[in-house]
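Listing S7. Sequence submitted for prediction.
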Amino acid sequence: MLKPAIHDEMGLRRRAGILAAIFAACLSSSGSVSRAQEAAQCSTPRQDAGTVKGIEADFEIDLIDGRKIVLAGIEVPGPGSLVVPTAREALSGWLEGKSISLSLLRKEPDRWGRLLAHVHADAGENTAISVAYALVDAGWARVRPQNEAAACLSWLLEAERSARSRHDGLWADAAYQIVQARDLAGLASRTGQWIVVEGAVHSVNETRNRTYINFGPARNIDLAVTIPRQTMRNFTSAGVVLKQFWGKTIRVRGLLERRPGPQIEIVIPQGIEIVTDKRLDPGAISRRP
């Protein structure tokens, strides 16, 4: 249960300030560094480097040479989040004017001119750690299941679970809490937002174009996770059989849309976490709360 102090604005701001100190301490903590080093091993070889000019409000990194870098594998908080100013200040204090290592994951920039990359920065004592990992571990970002970052997601998810258990950063804000899949009102209020959801799988159905992982019996009312047919090879190559999720409690994340019922599209197996392996009674899954 969350402490009452984190529900008010001042409480969140106090915690953000405390987290800034923790974030700085993390960089000098051998335990945290060793975990971040382990996470860095999953990345592609470091192909490039650059000097940081500044940090944008959405945590994009501006380099002195004009390039703009977006961190792979994470979803940053919206501009209204109370942790953004403190997180940006801490990130700027760490990186601005410093040289960073880049593992570019796409050859070309996106339509906004940004390059997707794993980024590593000096954490002291000639130790470089993953910037994305540090942000997730501090609770200042959530894990985004991107195909290019698939090899790193298990380490990032571990860091996210730790931050969530401590109610750090975003996880102290009710707006970023995990939404229950059968909470239809809660889902409706978050349409168009990037969210994390968990619940028991009612059924798994295949159509010509998509596979549906359903959290309830009514397609146009209950939440469904959809997997486009063209991305099914990502699951089959990983040995993931979608039917195995029936009756299990899973956690998914992504943009919540209405088509016409609530749906989240997943394109890689790392986008689905098994919370409880034990199958639940189908009747209990069907009953509405």
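Caption to Listing S7: primary sequence and predicted structure tokens for the chain studied. The chain is about 25% helix and 25% strand. The domain at 4-174 is CATH 2.40.50.90 (OB fold (Dihydrolipoamide Acetyltransferase, E2P)).
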